[in-house]
Amino acid sequence: MANMETRRLLSQARSLTEGREENLRDRIVTALYARAEGIAARVVKKNPSPRRDWDRRLDTVLTSRLWGYPLMLILLAAVFWLTVSGANYPSALLGRILFGFQDILSGLFGRLGAPDWLHGILVLGMYRTLAWVVSVMLPPMAIFFPLFTLLEDLGYLPRVAFNLDHLFHRAGAHGKQALTMCMGFGCNAAGVVGCRIIESPRERLIAILTNNFAPCNGRFPTLIALATIFLGGLVAPSGRAAVAALSVAGIVLLGILLMFLTSWLLSRTILKGVPSAFTLELPPYRPPQVLRVIVRSVFDRTLFVLARAVVVAAPAGALTWALANIHVGGVSIIAHLAGLLQPLGRAVGLDGYILLAFILGLPANEIVIPILLMGYLATGMLTDLDSLAALGSVLTSHGWTPVTALNMMLFSLLHWPCTTTLLTIYKETKGLKWPLLAALIPTAMGLLACFLVKTLANLAGLF
């Protein structure tokens, strides 16, 4: 009898889950909450609360299918705009201060009679690279992380996760990946650390491996500059800003779509499994504690990520200077390496110097353009130009077209993570397999995307 009863119960369980296994937990939780609400409605008398009514009215708009997504995109776009535009002046000011100190260091080395090679490695290589990384990374992170934390403290980020949960669930990922994706726009290393909030190890790995598809603040300067110079230059001056902004927004949306696609592929191949349910009780809205949020975001996120970037950027600066200043057969090593990469670069609509700049820029995406200019101009040290027009002139003189710029933007979105992010992935996953996979997946997609664009441009006679 017991066996028959057990089989009957198992049969009932199968009928409940047949064809809808992933929805069973949601149905159970929904039924429990409905039952609890029914009991509470019978035994609890509530005084009208204006604050609770206000929360419900906000949620009716912010989590609705009609307005939730547009408002979410507008708010996140505003955060990006504040981050990018607000960081311009402090980045320039910090750069002038740090590079001004470089002159003081150079004078000190001269008075001490230090050899040129030592001055080159320590000042023009290590210190100049650190100055670049700090001046470009610190201001955007100091703006983005507090803004992001304020939204979190306000109670809005759980609504973002609620809105995107269905899409990530359809991709075989976890709804909380929406939060780690948003963190990746500030810094992919911080986004990877944020993946700790995902309880399922399988879905945490999916979030870690795909976080690089969210372009970090280190890639935005390159995207914005190239979009303004080349893609914005295709239209009248009055419309250049709009075209550049739409181009960058399109690149960001492409990265999000590829994140969904890659998550879907991973969840059905090497990380196969049943998506876990994401039961989220939306917290009430509350005024953020601004001072505490700023202090926490600066020390826990901004300085933490910046410290890791500095550690890996310093030796990279020394190596880059050495490659640019050691000559073999009258040609610098950096020129030899660019020549070796030239066939692959041309095949995907780029060139050898571009690919080499991405390789040497592995420690930080911020130094890709300076390394590229150093190779093009043979200056022997990281170089900056004082205007977009000057940058456009140098790139055009080396054969760049709008198609080259588009491919550069695509490859900036789709290539290996920076050293800081790879190191973070290694520490989070405690193995080499996952950092290598995190580098291979976007790079293969980036080379393929650039090749397709170049092929289509050739067919249309544009390249």
From TrEMBL:
Domain Nucleoside transporter/FeoB GTPase Gate: 135-227, 308-429
Protein name: Fe2+ transport system protein B
Keywords noted in UniProt: Membrane, Transmembrane, Transmembrane helix
Organism: Moorella thermoacetica Y72
Matches recorded under InterPro entries: Fe2_transport_prot_B_C, FeoB_GTPase, Gate_dom
Record field: transmembrane: 66-87, 126-148, 218-236, 242-266, 298-316, 322-341, 353-379, 399-424, 436-457
Pfam families from the UniProt entry: FeoB_C, Gate
GO molecular function, one term: ferrous iron transmembrane transporter activity
Domain called Ferrous iron transport protein B C-terminal: residue spans: 249-297
Any one GO CC term of the record: plasma membrane
